[in-house]
Known about the structure:
The chain is mainly α and about 325 residues long. Helix content is about 80%, strand content about 0%. α7 (about 150-165) runs antiparallel to α10.
Amino acid sequence: MDETKTNRTGDRSVLKIILHSVVWLCKRLALMYVLIYFLLGHVIDYTKVQDKNMLKALNDLKPDLSYFVKYEENQGPFNKAELQRNITYYKKITEFFPQNPTAHGMLGFAYYHADDQNKAIEYFQKATELHPQFFWFYYNLGVINFKDGRYADAIEPLNKALTTNLTHTLTLLSTSEIYRRLFVGLSGLGKTMSTHLGTGTQNCYKLLVLSNLHLKNYKELLNITNYAIYLKIDELDFFYYFAGLAAYELKQYGQAIFYFDKALKENPEYSDTYYYLSLSLKAMNQETAATQMLLKGSAINKAKAPTPYQNTIINPQMF
Length: 319
């Protein structure tokens, strides 16, 4: 009997200890939840404050966002002060949002116009890393390297531009908040973007042709021109002429004559075509025809010397 009573007393003691432990644990948990709630609320509030401060900082720096569009479309003058405001603005965006490819691309574009080619290349390169399927980032890298005479460095980004998925380029142009603000008030945007991409593609092939010409890579030059001709890229006279020139340098004179004839059908007013056609005919012992072509070319030069294809001017583009 005493033993049973003792056991019951012990059970109650154990139960009391368990209850005390549960109460203590609940208090601790309640305190912990209060602390978590407070800390989370503080973090969320702090994030809101951060967002507000970032927004205020960007609004305070905001330049004329349509400046580059107007300048690129020849609708406004070049303005150094506005250019610097754009650099400051986009640099701040890259600080706040380091993973934003469009901000890096715009900063590269701004630095190019500020004549800081190294910075322009740095930011365009970063933009390609953040968005490897955007045509214009690679295009601009290729153009800048070409204009600076780094022909070998121009070839890789130009080729990469041609292998990008243009749907991804159009998607970023349509969804990016930065581009959306740039395009405010611009009519016919879809057609403009598509037209620019067509011109950009054509320019890529042109610059690949001229880069390989400068490097005297005549076999590659012939391959590129043949492919551009196969695709029926605009200004076929340009590609036929350089295909003929590549074939001439490779001593494939019969092929050179074929390409120069095609080039003259597209553009009969380019004197250099007659000159190299004359040399090719002479190499094939067609002296009379060679003399005739040389005289035709000389007559065109006397009337009005055409601008050489090699002097093609191509600049970076925003979109």
